[in-house]
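FIELD: query
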Amino acid sequence: MPSNKLLERLGEFVDNQTIKPTKKELTIIINQLYKEKEDKQKKAEIKPKPKITAYNEFYKVQFAILKEKEILLKKEDRMSSIKKTNYINSLWKQELSKRIEDDIEN
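FIELD: result
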């Protein structure tokens, strides 16, 4: 946008205000707007979505299975999150061993 049009629009905005902002207030607001816009652009550039790994998919499925099994149990009888994670990790190691054996046979 050409700077003269921007200046006209900003002038109209200031003229339409019931309480006129000071030069300092306008400077602070404009700087804040630019900073927020730059921050949003940086975040969008920096954070690509990670790819779901085989382990992530396996974990999600196994966690859902465990959660379903424990629905009827009392809270004190359920596994803690750490125990669930350790259990799923042991299942994953078994799964990996099985996959390696299958690859060797084929």
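FIELD: remark
The chain has two domains: 3-46, 54-105.
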